[in-house]
Amino acid sequence: MAYPTKNPLAKLDSCPPFLAHALARERNGKKRLALDKIVERSGLAERTYLRTARKHNWDTVKFGVMKKFLKGTGVDPFRMRNELRYLREHNFQFPFLNKKQQQTLNEICAAAQK
């Protein structure tokens, strides 16, 4: 799986929904955002938000839902400097990711380090 940096769709693919959800942090970056706060900021129904947060890619997510989802998490796939620093500090590990999500994250991180 290659993620060339110049292609906007590749940038978006390098931050799949489950990762955007995992990276949703308070402004200082130390505390996770509460689910109700994320849902409120996004304007999505909680069920829609959670269904999207479990996805491994953006392929089946409607554009409007994608925009609202990213607004709720506060993650901008095109400006990931702070998020990448957070990932590096935590050795690219999240204890609550399932096996497939962790594998996808490992592939993304390996492509980003090339």
Concise synopsis of the structure shown:
The chain is mainly alpha-helical. It has helices at 8-13, 17-22, 35-42, 46-53, 63-73, 81-89, 99-112.
Describe the structure.
By secondary structure, the chain is mainly alpha-helical. The protein has one domain (8-112). Helices cover 54% and strands 0% of the residues. The chain contains seven helices and no strands. Helix 3 (35-42) packs across helix 5 (63-73). The longest helix has 14 residues, at 99-112. It is globular.
Number of domains: 1
In DSSP terms, counting alpha (H) and pi (I) runs of 4 or more, how many helices? 7
Give me the strand/helix succession.
HHHHHHH
Derived from helix and strand composition plus strand pairing, the structural class reads: mainly alpha
Strand content: under 5%
Number of strands: 0
Topology, pairings included?
Layout: H1 8-13, H2 17-22, H3 35-42, H4 46-53, H5 63-73, H6 81-89, H7 99-112
Helix pairs in contact: 3-5
